[in-house]
Amino acid sequence: MAMSLGFHIIFAMVSMAMPLLMVIAEWQWLKTGQEVYLTVAKRWAKGAAIFFAVGAVSGTVLSFQLGLLWPAFMAWAGPIIGLAFSIEGFAFFTEAIFLGIYLYGWQKVSPNAHLAAGMVVAVSGIISGVVVVMANGWMNTPRGFTLVDGIPSNIDPIAALLNPSGLLQAPHMILAAFAAVGFAVAGIHAFLLLRHPDHPFHQTAFTIAAAVGCISALLQPLSGDFLAKRVAEFQPMKLAVFEGQVHTQKGAPFRLGGIWNSDKEMFDYVLEIPYALSLMLHLDPQGEVQGFKDFPKEHWPPIGLVRTAFQIMVFIGISMMFLALWATCLVFMKKNIFQSKAFLKAMVFATPLGFLATECGWVATEVGRQPWIVVGYVKTAEAVTPMPGLNIPLVFFAGLYTFLAFIVVWLMLRHVAATPGQFEMNPRTNLTALT
Asked: Which terminus has fewer CB within 10 Å in the chain: N or C?
């Protein structure tokens, strides 16, 4: 299941963010009449369709796995979070229908109707991702039911959906998708701009993708700060593991790095910034931060793995934020951003970083909740299937995902390599500044 989620989340992020990019490009075409925007929109739509098709396969696998691998969990939690999966299914089919209209309706519907279809695709993709994140948030902070003889009763699916963790995880995930996809698309075009600095197609595509990615990267730390405060409130042990807070402490420092020493039950090689963690969580340098040693040891998650994944996510997020600030400075200094080889090379390097940060963030979130699948109510060991012989489907799905990944990479390489050349001799479409 972890392997399936790790594979599928990349396609889910593309489905959330890529339609926004193609809608912006089409809107710019309707606004300016420049053909380059139309070409960018069409090519991005084809790329989005590739990811959508493969994501539909991996999403279907996940649907089966929920029932086959987690029968006890679905029996216990299904009536509570079933609404979220119903909305997700409706959003998925809406996205599929309107993506078909968008791909094949260029000459068959009016320009405004076509743009509206693209907007529906974008909104549906976001809703599809958000409700799944809200369901996951419920697993961290369960709400919307009372427990009677070990069975959930008096179920309120709306209250469950609007749980406190999900309400902040959702915007964090949206920004993560926009930042990751924006940087990935911009990185691809940055690589091509290093070879052809004056190519208007790549300049246009880079401008739109970098704008979406950089704005999201600048907003993401704010979202993360709000989410961290909520985790400290509702899941103090998880927050303590994230931040390497072993003992309860007033004036807690913010810790960088560190290797978990399970024998000494402490972190080695840690760099501390005095009072910073208390200040971040409580706006008070003397605020008290609870340590995970206050909790029963049998409820500790894998400390080293969770802490390392969280640290990688934070480091990547900060790196992307600095790249966004670099781009902002180049714009305000009225520099030709397409001629800055150092910046373009940095963007090429950053191409996969957003996806890597998201994978690490989900490892921190999911593994950091262990041993619970529904915190405080159901343990993971109680919810997983007792069926033996799971090595066979594990190998099968690993092979399936490897094959699908190969197909996607092959198709995208062909798609990117077929760079439109009709604008190369038209100086009027040459963009020389990021605006």
From this structure: C
